[in-house]
């Protein structure tokens, strides 16, 4: 029989885990991890240049410098699997005072994720930047590891419920702790990689960058997983201690 305290702790841990998993899943699937605010475009020559960048962004080959420059100059947003730019909905760029804008996105394919980064973006002769390369790979692999651990923990918990056993609770708590650490490491890798990209790239004048809500969702999910892990570990250890005390009492 499970004590009310343990049952309450398990229910709260499950709710926290569910919230954290939803937040992390939404963060992975959206592009608002980092966003750029670009100045308004003036002049037909500049508009033509931006149109060329946009066409290369949508239809050209994958190149870090090309898509980075486009993000800088077209109010871009970038996530773990998506990169998007804000462009006019009509064909005549920046000719109307009240132009409506739409968000156009391209995905990072699996081959893109494993593409090496260079010390000078776009210059393959500058040598591979190992730090940026592995930060980029970690930022998309670690959240998948985190989700995988949560799915595994959920399967173990479901089997434990069917068997009416609290024995696996400690392992489930450890999985949640590792998942929270992986999510936190994802955010750190993303921020470090973005900062390094800005150091090796030339940002246009009056372009500002800011963190997006997708990154904050991932950041929130990390402590939620850790709190869930703490409750699960506490419930497992307390139940184990009570079980041993009851066993010793019966033997005595």
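-> sequence recovered:
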């Amino acid at each position: 029989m499970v004590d009310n305290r343990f049952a309450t702790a398990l229910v709260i841990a499950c709710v926290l885990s569910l919230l954290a998993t939803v937040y992390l899943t939404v963060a992975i699937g959206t592009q608002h991890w980092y966003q750029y605010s670009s100045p308004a475009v003036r002049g037909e020559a500049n508009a033509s240049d931006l149109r060329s960048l946009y066409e290369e962004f949508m239809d050209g080959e994958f190149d870090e410098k090309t898509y980075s420059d486009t993000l800088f100059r077209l109010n871009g947003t970038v996530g773990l699997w998506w990169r998007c730019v804000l462009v006019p909905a009509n064909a005549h760029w920046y000719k109307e005072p009240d132009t409506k804008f739409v968000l156009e996105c391209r995905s990072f394919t699996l081959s893109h994720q494993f593409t090496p980064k260079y010390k000078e973006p776009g210059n393959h002769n500058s040598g591979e930047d190992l730090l940026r390369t592995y930060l980029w790979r970690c930022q998309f692999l670690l959240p998948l590891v985190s989700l995988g651990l949560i799915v595994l923990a959920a399967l173990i918990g479901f089997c434990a419920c069917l068997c009416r056993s609290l024995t696996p609770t400690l392992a489930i708590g450890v999985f949640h702790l590792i998942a929270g650490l992986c999510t936190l490491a994802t955010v750190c890798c993303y921020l470090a990689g973005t900062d390094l990209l800005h150091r090796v790239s030339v940002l246009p004048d009056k372009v500002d960058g800011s963190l997006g809500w997708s990154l904050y969702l991932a950041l929130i999910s990390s402590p939620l997983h850790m709190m869930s892990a703490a409750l699960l570990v506490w419930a497992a250890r307390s139940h184990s201690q009570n079980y041993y005390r009851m066993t010793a009492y019966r033997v005595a």
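The longest strand covers residues 82-88.
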